[in-house]
Input
Amino acid sequence: MPSFRLKHKTILREHINQTILASGKHSGDLNFIFCNDESLLDINKRFLQHDYYTDVITFDYSSAKTISGDIYISIDRVAENAKTEKQTFETELGRVMIHGVLHLMGYGDKEKSAKALMRKNENKFIALLNSTNKYGL
Output
């Protein structure tokens, strides 16, 4: 596992809770597990039978209106995506964290239209986070 320390935990926690509340749901047990590419690739192969790198994998334990789950995030992919998208690491990390939460809220990203809706919601919630000017995204 990489040596990684999440900055701005309290702000991110509040923002994620606000994201969930804005959707008419509430937070249950949410676990963010930060790992490297190889660890997430292993999870992808073992549990999803996918043999490729990804930035996030979610395991959904939600029930009714309570959002719960494990969200595994590859710090290696986040760093690479940030470079590719010309974003800061923190902006991309925020996006991937919200992306994982949106999966737990029922949003998909396999079809083109679902992917567009996912991106629209990511942008909406990242804009809300940016509007606080606390996180510096």
Q: What stands out?
A: The longest strand covers residues 26-35.
